[in-house]
Amino acid sequence: MTFSEDYFDAIAAQYDYWKKKNAYYHENLKLLYGQFIPKGARVLEIGCGTGDILARLEPKEGRGVDVSEEMVEIARRKYAGKSNLQFEREDIFESTKMFGYPYIFLADVLEHVGGLEKFVRQLAARTDSGSTVVISVANPLWEPVLMLAEKLHMKMPEGPHTRDPIQETERIFRASGFTIVERGYRLLIPKKIPGADWLNARFHHFRFFAPLGFVIFWVLRR
User: Fold this and answer.
1) Is the pLDDT of residue 174 over 60?
2) Residue 50 maps to which CATH number?
3) Are the C-beta atoms of 104 and 133 separated by less than 8 Å?
């Protein structure tokens, strides 16, 4: 089992509630992926949850896979009328249907993987040469804040996870055969408060402030 399958099955019914509670973060995540994945593309999402980011990208053909059968069932119900979207329960280690997608993305997935190096090697092996892979995770610097927010019931319980240092994650990307095209940061302020939009639109352009961002993302190619 690659991800925390039982955990995500258990929280599936509350997943969309927590996303609405932190709508500012999730809306900005959708905008981030929209910067790198054009509408009308063929797109694969690994760790699709209940399908909202994939649906927002408006792909010509969008395939979302997740190890949680409960998450997949919710996504199927929500987007039953969208013939361009397909959701399946699948483990990347078992997958034989990842080739042929020019765009692949993983949002808030790596921290829940057991055996990151093996996972990324499998991802690289199943990614076509020239395909674009976009990955985002929460910045490890924010871990104390996230744990406090969880105790205060301000965010979804994280469940089993590990936030590897950025340098180690990038070493794994390169060792697995990926080229890092871009690394960036977003959301200095991940909640909707006065001034948040103004600061979030600007801080990542400054070298000394950018690494404080809540979200780290990478654009990779094999």
Assistant:
1) yes
2) 3.40.50.150
3) yes
